[in-house]
Design a protein that fits this description.
Blueprint lengths: L3 H21 L6 H9 L15 H8 L10 H7 L3 H28 L8 H13 L2 H33 L4 H11 L3 H15 L4 H12 L2 H16 L4 H54 L1
């Protein structure tokens, strides 16, 4: 007969896993925030003093001062995640690894299964240390996708800026008009960088410089350098912009081909294993009959 304590423990474990999956699953965009970004005015850009960070974000902010913890700030800026949220994920995984052996030990006691008492004490810190680095791997995987998205957006932005320059727009005006045409997170970040530069009374390529430094994207730095030459020296940069966009698209195509080849090579192993399994299933009955 199943013990009520076992049912309760299973329910608690299922609830914890559901909360963990809900926290790590990419959340759908908030409609209110999206509408605010579309219709905001300069007065709306000031932070609301009544809006406070959530309690787990406050825990993450306090844990930023831990010694020996390396925070990938550029990677987090690229995927739009705060360092506080990154630290919360690390603490959550470490706590899960620390408590999971103790929970399994308690379940074993309730089910009268003999386990060494020291096992949770030894396995808990080891598992917590391993799970501590899981968010780093998650961030690295998301950064690859985000970087590809940014590079595609920058290639499109280069083409738009070149067309604006061909229409006799000034360098600063070409950067702003090209950024206002596109949609998506890449163009939104570029527009915000240009707006910050205008607010600080700086040329627009200075804003692109700051954004390229923040995100670690060399092609965006190239855009800033090309337009700086056009703005200060009056250089004709139409052909340069088109050539840089073409080169960037070539780099992205080469990466896509390399990724496709790697995926094809990884498919060889499952196919070979399936062929070997079918061979064993066909040969084994005949071989067993011959041996008997």
């Amino acid at each position: 007969m199943i013990s009520p304590w076992s049912v309760l423990a299973g329910a608690v474990a299922a609830g914890g896993l559901a909360l963990l999956v809900a926290e790590l699953r990419p959340a759908p965009p908030d409609l209110r925030q999206a509408l605010d970004r579309l219709h905001r005015t300069p007065a709306d850009r000031e932070p609301d003093p009544d809006e406070r960070p959530r309690w787990y974000d406050r825990i993450g902010e306090r844990s930023l001062t831990l010694r020996g913890v390396t925070i990938p700030r550029r990677e987090l800026a690229l995927i739009g995640r705060t360092p506080a949220r990154f630290m919360v994920h690390k603490l959550l995984f470490a706590a899960l690894g620390l408590l999971l052996p103790a929970y399994l030990g308690a379940m074993a006691v309730l089910m009268d299964v003999g386990l060494p008492f020291a096992l949770p004490l030894v396995a808990g810190p080891l598992l917590a240390g391993l799970l501590w680095f899981v968010p780093d791997g998650v961030v690295r995987g998301e950064v690859k996708e985000a970087r590809t998205e940014y590079l595609h957006g920058i290639a499109a932005y280069l083409e738009l800026v070149a067309m604006e320059r061909a229409a006799d727009c000034g360098p600063a005006e070409a950067l702003r008009r090209a950024a206002s045409v596109g949609q998506g997170v890449v163009f939104r970040r570029i527009r915000d960088a240009l707006e910050r530069a205008a607010t600080d009374r700086l040329p627009p390529w200075a804003g692109l410089d700051a954004l390229a430094e923040e995100l670690g994207l060399t092609p965006l730095q190239d855009v800033a350098d090309i337009m700086r030459l056009s703005g200060t020296d009056g250089a004709a940069v139409y052909d340069t912009l088109r050539a840089r966009a073409k080169g960037l698209r070539g780099e992205l195509l080469a990466e896509d081909l390399a990724r496709a080849n790697a995926d094809s090579e990884r498919m060889v192993a499952p196919g070979a294993a399936l062929t070997l399994l079918m061979t064993v299933l066909i040969v084994f009955p005949a071989l067993h009959q011959m041996l008997n």
